[in-house]
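Journal club prep, notes for RB
We'll compare a predicted complex against what the paper describes. Inputs for the NAP case:
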Amino acid sequence: MTDHPRIPLAGVIGSPVAHSRSPILHGYWLKRHGIKGHYIPMDIAQADLAEALRILPKLGFVGLNVTIPHKEAILGLADIVTDSAAQIGAANTLVFHQDGRIHADNTDGTGFIANLRQNVPDWRPSAGPAAIFGAGGAARAVVAALIEAGVPEIRIANRTRSRAEAFRSDFGTRLVVQDWVRAGDMLEGVTTVVNTTALGMVGKPDFRIPLDKLEPGTLATDLVYTPLRTQFLVEAEQAGATIVDGLGMLLHQAAPGFERWFGQRPEVDEATREAVLAA
Ligand code: NAP
């Protein structure tokens, strides 16, 4: 036996994980809060996922972030799945309980809303319809969060229309599906607009949906944060929208995990943004 407390370990599992900014972010918070802990990126193949979850808690891990391609499969390996993770169909944050149970949550939706509230405190989700470009995994978290925040109607357009239609069966009649080729038309009268597609990201095709129907004062946000000022945000700003970039969502979705693993709620502020951007 030893009197020394174990140094808490956390990390991100996925494949690949080399691009993840989470180690920089959590490393920065650990240092800033003077916590003796470590956050480690781990490239784990699908076939090794169950084995990794069995072993990591024994090695001192208190929890994990989960990224592509394990976000959905992880639900089948967790003992406790939050309502949010179940509704979204994916988890991004695991907590290893001392009794051996694995708790799985999805913090993307709360991170998305926290980013908007921090940057636009007078944003009122109930003020009008929202328009969403894209119907992938991240869009599920955004739609669930907007519904919970009280958005009265959500218009959604996706290149693969069947994915948007599936949202309607999962999230109900507040959703209205729009054709991808006429996606710009759904902007009329909306007070919130979100790009959840990968369009505009470094290495991906440009975002080309016309924004001429966007009304001044609309809140426009992009989940893409490389580059920080995407073409979508630049054009939305030119149309008079209030814009919020996607980096804040990344920071805010990470905060609950850090707090559960290391016992302190981290600050999401300018210094945190700079630390992540500088790396
Ligand atoms: P995903 O499940 O793979 O979904 C990708 C979405 O982009 C789908 O709607 C897809 O349409 C659309 N898309 C991809 N290429 C397209 C193209 N050439 N033309 C039209 N649509 C295209 O990915 P995800 O996890 O939802 O992530 C989406 C984006 O959000 C990524 O850029 C990711 O980095 C970002 N993200 C950011 C945060 C944050 O914290 N800021 C969090 C999560 C995700 P189809 O269905 O037709 O393929």
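Talking point for the session: The first strand starts at residue 9 and ends at 14.
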